[in-house]
Amino acid sequence: MKILVTGGAGFIGSSLIEELLKKGDKVTCVDNFSDYYDILFKKENIRRLKNKRLRVLNVDIEDRARLMRLLKGLHFDKVVHLAARVGVRNSLKNPDLYIKTNVTGTLNVLEAAREMGVKDVVFAGSSSVYGNDEPIPSKEDAPCLKPLNPYAMSKRSAELLCYTYHMIYGLNVTILRFFTVYGPKGRPDMSPYIFTQSLLTGKKINLNGDGRATRDFTNIKDIVRGITLALAKPFGYEIINLGASRPVSIKKFISVLEKITGKKAKIKYLPSLSGESRNTYADTSKAKKLLGFESKITLEAGLTEFVDWFKANRLG
Ligand SMILES: NC(=O)c1ccc[n+]([C@@H]2O[C@H](COP(=O)([O-])OP(=O)(O)OC[C@H]3O[C@@H](n4cnc5c(N)ncnc54)[C@H](O)[C@@H]3O)[C@@H](O)[C@H]2O)c1
Question: Which Pfam families does the UniProt record give (predicted)?
Fold first, then answer.
């Protein structure tokens, strides 16, 4: 298949492209190598993927004219739209950037898909759209009308835009709501990376809240498998949770890391931050029913691999 992956230089995108290339697909990656975190990490992700079947276009999805120009005349079977401004905390400081990339940028990607005659789109949704909605575990039919931060609001808005494009133009869109993804090439702004780095370098962990909030940490291998399953099975318009469905408290998460690294965490407790969900927990019965998806990687196994990767790639 010929697949366009936006955000392909990032954590999830580069992990997905690696898998698609292994399967023999032809991939075009669209990414503007944004400087939200170290650009060298993204360049390294792409360098490692070097392959005759991979084309990389350095373009900002906010720039519709340039995006259209670069994609003109190209043919794709599928689009996986992962490019986004990420990070809940940063979205509190720069809300306008999140609207531009995640809403207007998504509009541009949907327009490009329409223009190129692509029928099937997979979009990266986020567990953050559930906010503090009850009940938990979260199900896809929850209204998601109370986003707690601009990032969540922008991802929810983009989902609605996908629905509109499905209704008007018949685009098949599968929205996969990812739950706290971790693993090799993981993002340096996320807790698995920050905690591992702090433990391995003997630094203090600044922890907002009492450590009892829970997260449904999901391994990147499960996420990549979920995306490939969704690519193989277009529906009209569906929203599907992709999560481990095994939430753990932040305290428990740190204690698993302590065991794996053999180091004791020095934790400094700070006040909770507003704008963050208290708990995330995916109900994955729809993923199982529609995609045959179930998380396979345990937290212990996934974190052991992550710590090994971190030692080999991020220390010294
Ligand atoms: N990592 C998680 O836990 C998680 C959870 C829920 C949802 N998601 C979603 O998954 C997707 C991938 O996230 P990730 O963790 O790999 O993040 P990432 O930051 O590693 O990857 C995102 C990529 O998008 C690119 N990008 C940003 N703005 C762009 C623009 N204007 N034009 C072109 N490219 C742009 C960045 O350069 C980056 O390479 C995002 O849509 C994110 O919202 C991630």
Answer: Epimerase
